Amino acid sequence: MFKKTVYLVTVLALTVGLALSQDKGKGGPPGGGGGKGGQAKGPGMSLSSPDFPDGGIIPDKFTQAAGPTSPSPKLEWANVPMGTVSFVLIMHDPDAAIGGPEDVLHWMAFNIPGTAKGLDGGVPTTATLPDGTIQAKNRGGNPGYMGPGNPAINPYHHYTWELYALNSTLMLGADATREDVLKAMVGKTTGKAVLVGRFKRPQ
After folding, report:
1. Which of 35, 49, 70, 147 is the most buried (most CB within 10 A)?
2. Within the chain, how many helices (H) and strands (E) appear?
């Protein structure tokens, strides 16, 4: 009788342990939908343009090949994190370095309203926009967008638009540098998306 009882207890313990192990495994890998509360994470924030595909060639009309005051392309974004109050947009050329390791800043805008779903093409090159967006000075010393200008003798450069979602606005003005903006974003950034376009001037 004693041996039979021990056997049943052992079987019961093994059965419970196996059930608990299987139940625990239902959580899935970290970040794969088995997180806190069993809630699956949604897709990450995305940034795109109807004017060129991600990784594609930027049309000349949006570059210095069309003149020094070429218009900015249209930008669209989606899957914005909940609680987004504002956006920061930074466009730069990571393939270029002039006189030092810092690359070329082509466009920097911040305090873009959190309700925005994109930017229309041809954003005015002014320090402030009617919706409160602030545009700092680009490498050329002017506010707003500066189109790509990579010479034809070079390989294609990868012009990169970086969009950041923030849970607040930045207490900065149009005289802010990229370093100022990046420093002010610490602790406020909740999402990021990137769009890349390639360009070199026609021969």
Report:
1. 147
2. 2, 8
